[in-house]
Amino acid sequence: MKSLKIFFSISTLLVLFSACQETPPLINYKPSNSVLDTTFITTSIPAAETKNILIEDFTGVGCVNCPRAHETLKALKSSYSGRVFSIANHPLNATLKTLVEPIFKPPFVSKRDFRTKDADDLLTYLGSSNSLPTGSINRKLFNGETKWLVSDLSWSGYANTELAQTSSAVNIDTLSIKYDASSNELSIDLRLVFTQSMPDSQYLLTVAILENKIIDIQEKNENGSTIYIEDYQHDNVLRKVITGVYGDLLKAKYEPGRVFRKRFIYKPTADELKNWNWNTDNLAVIAFVHGNATKKDVIQVKATYIKL
User: Mean per-residue pLDDT for 56-83?
Assistant: First the structure.
């Protein structure tokens, strides 16, 4: 069964001419060669972007029903082109061991181990689970639910509810990722602009690296029997959360024209490179703005592929 689916160091403050539309008092700036972190107000407030949604899929290579969840994701992405984004989280979790650990049932043997501590921490943060597949739709606690994680059988309904909201309170108008092979560093740049006032709550930004088009084995339930798909395509696999795993606080008043500019430099460790064996051509970065631990809701999300 083949599958073809496939960087500002500041030494002085600049005086801006009156013709400039942005007057940026630099806030939260960290003087580092690797991070740009500033916020300011622009008088040129853009129109609100279309609101996208994030589905955080907790999955495993030994989970026979997880391919069913992946098909649900594909269908939603097809129906709502460019508005549905997903992350495949493979947690390190003793309770889910048989579902998430690499397959070793000769001749069926996994080539890679997709599990990460970040995925495990997120599983706990969003409500934990004793079974897979499960996932979060925009990190929203829907009526009647006791956890942010819900069965994949509920994803379409809840996703359609979220997709009915067509206007976003924040635009992610710049998002790019580049890889420097000489330094083995990933550079991620983004710019956020709030298009409306938001409640006096806390909003955070999460940025993560994903890998696509990984061909490896996957167990699947087919007509009540377990089969092994040796050339299964694993997409949107979480590799690393670049911000804090639960996000970085956006420290300013959330008002129309509020801009946040950020740059992240990430250099994988030797162990990460060895264990992931990633193909840089297939890397992507996903960024999303969301609430805090009390109200986790995602208000906008975008992803983009690497640019070499």
Answer: 97
| The residue type at 113 | D
In a domain, 176, yes or no: yes
- 12 by Cβ neighbours in 10 Å (0-12 / 13-18 / 19+) ranks as exposed
Whether residue 292 contacts residue 204, with contact meaning beta carbons closer than 8 Å, is answered with yes
In a domain, residue 14? The reply is no
Tell me the pTM: 0.87
Cis peptide before 133 (omega within 30 of 0): yes
pLDDT value, residue 17: 33
Q: What pLDDT is recorded for position 294?
A: 86
Contact 162, 140 (CB under 8 A): yes
Q: Which domain CATH number covers 52? A: 2.60.40.10
Asked if the structure places residue 209 within a domain, the reply is yes
Q: 89: domain range?
A: 22-305
Question: What confidence tens digit (pLDDT) does each residue in 38-48 have?
Answer: 999 999 999 99
pLDDT above 90 coverage of the chain, percent: 73
Does the pLDDT at position 112 exceed 70? Answer: yes
**Tell me, what's the pLDDT at 270?**
78
Q: How many domains does the chain have?
A: 1
Domain contains 133: yes
